[in-house]
Amino acid sequence: MAVSEVQVEAAVEGFAERAPLATVVLGLIRRQPLGAAGALIVIIMILMAAFAEFVAPYDPIANNFEDMLLAPGAKYWLGTDEFGRDILSRLIYGARTALFVGFVAAFVGATSGLVLGVASAYFGGRFDLLFQRVMDVFMAFPLIILALAVVSILGTGIQNVIIAITIPFIPNCARVVRSNALAIREIPYIDAARACGFSHARIILRHMVPNVMAPYLIMITAFVGQAILLEASLSYLGLGVQEPTPAWGLMLSGGAEEYAESAPWIAVFPGIGISLAVFGFNLFGDALRDVLDPKLRSR
Amino acid sequence: MYQYIIKRLLLMVPALFGAAVLVFFLMRLIPGDICDLRIGGEGGYRDLEMVAACRTEFGIDDPMYVQFLEFVWGFIRFDLGTSMWTGQPILYELGLRFELSLQLAIMTTVISILIAIPLGTISAIKQDTWIDYVVRSFSIAGIAVPSFWLGIMIILGLLIYTQAWFGTPWMPPIKYVPLWEDPGYNLSMLIWPAMATGYRYSAVATRMTRSALLEVLREDYVRTARAKGLLEKVIINRHALKNALLPVVTVIGIEFAFLMGGLVVTEQVFNLNGLGKLFVESVINKDYTLTQALVMLVVTIFIFVNFAVDLLYGWLDPRIRYA
Fold it and tell me: B12, B148, B160, B215: best mutation site toward chain A, by most A Cβ within 10 Å?
């Protein structure tokens, strides 16, 4: 290694040391208080999902007919459902289902949209026109109905729910990314890359995709929240995750409505769980947009 | 202008054709067909001859391209055919539910506008103050709260509070009566789902109003208005808001299009017999003709609303010219 490189690295390290993590975090909290609150909710949720076995007080699936429909109290903090299952434990395990569906659907949907959107902008011409019309058709299809059709074809279950939720995300992300990529295509470095004889795939993936990361990251955080909501809606309709898997939407169907008057806690807490999770991701996504998109920073 | 309208109308053709292809093949990808369901039921014994006769009756045993051409030709002539499941003309089935869904979509849109524009404006004027934070949190919460859960909570609240105040629990009526026949009864049924979904849909519009207004308030002409001593109220109401509403109109227009037929879960919660519920039933019953007609209806509304929004742009902002 050359001496100059070592010096540069040392200088970079020194620069990094000047802003310790705590200062950065405190700065972010001051500048983006709502975003920091969102990040906190998201982190708590991830920890809850990851360590569900240690955090949850009871088994989320085991029926306990001696303790059916108990109101929130010292033994069961959030009460029990019509099968005597602890609602708090089901909520904690439900976070795992929600986050799994949310992250996978958001990542796969946004990433496919990213590659397709950039490719559409890069190739332009007829390919772009045709691609845009296909995207138009998918955009005009109401999201829940597309999901309904996919679940009818592939059947219920967690993987199929993820597929059903992912498909409508692709055109959404592709469209936003394409409009950003159109501007990048006109910058001379792309012509330079082409003149060097690089393949289309290399230009798209190595030279264009990194430059549309900001809208991509913003879309991903927005999609996680949307996916959690959609999963809840599909499970509520009986088209998503199936019993006895703990899932928030599923907890709202069946018993929740049946016992709404006598045991309202069955319906109240899962809804708060869904709302809080999506709220957290949206706050975080908003803050991320402000930080990543300098045009919006003043607003 | 006319050229633009004709071009836009022509561009609708490929989008509608794409939707027709998508729904046609999507429906046929679902395993089993209506004859399996009608004659055999779920996994039961089925008389193969009867199933074959049923398929001939509905034309499901025709080659795919024949079925597809018949469907497209029917759509071009506005002849939607009859529902495979109920045997009634599809126009009759749609007519029964269209009024309810349209009224609910309009009421939801009105509620969301009434929430969004004042809140978005206040939030923009009081940018980065506690009022702004409260409004922004309120609107982000609107996107986060599932409207079907809000619906359940509204019903629960109604039951508990009517029980406490009047001694007997009251639930919104279930049977639809048109607005002009009995306005009180009609509104007591539809105001709750409209509130549950209106809050959710207001959230996006509130955020859009806020950010658009913030942008307009930084324009030179607003500074000029301030420099000549106009009241802040006049500047916002007469000068800024009108220009800021442009993107808000787009959001509201697109949301309205989605509301027609997209309220599947809300209709389920409030037990409303609208287009969304019909959609679910038709997919579950594998009623090809009805599902196809519904998808084409919703997609057509979506495309036309988008078109209307684009035309409205030119009217709201004379700087926009169509070429």
Answer: B148
* Integer Cα distance of B195 and A188 in angstroms: 52
- What would the pLDDT profile of B21-80 be if each residue is shown by its tens digit? 888 888 888 877 888 777 766 566 677 788 888 888 888 888 888 889 988 898 888 888
Helix (H) or strand (E) holding B123: helix B90-125
Q: For residue A147, what are the CA distances in angstroms to A162, A163, B66?
A: 9, 8, 27
Asked if residues A141 and B283 have their Cβ atoms less than 8 Å apart, the reply is no
Rounded Cα distance between B76 and B96, Å, is 22
Give the CATH superfamily of A34-298.
Answer: MetI-like (1.10.3720.10)
The four Cα atoms B115, B117, B121, B123 give a dihedral, to 10 degrees, of 40
Choosing among A135, A141, A237, which should be mutated to test the B contact, i.e. which has the most B CBs within 10 A? A141
| Residue numbers of A between 31 and 90 with CB closer than 8 Å to B | 33-34
Instruction: Name the pTM for this structure.
Output: 0.84
Instruction: Just give the CATH number of B94-316.
Output: 1.10.3720.10
Domain boundaries, chain A: 1-31, 34-298
pLDDT of A113-139, one tens digit each? 999 999 999 998 888 888 888 888 888
Q: Does A20 touch chain B (CB under 8 A)?
A: no
Residues carrying CATH 1.10.3720.10, chain B: 94-316
Closest-CA distance of chain A to residue B165, Å: 16
Nearest CA of chain B to the CA of A138: how many Å?
8
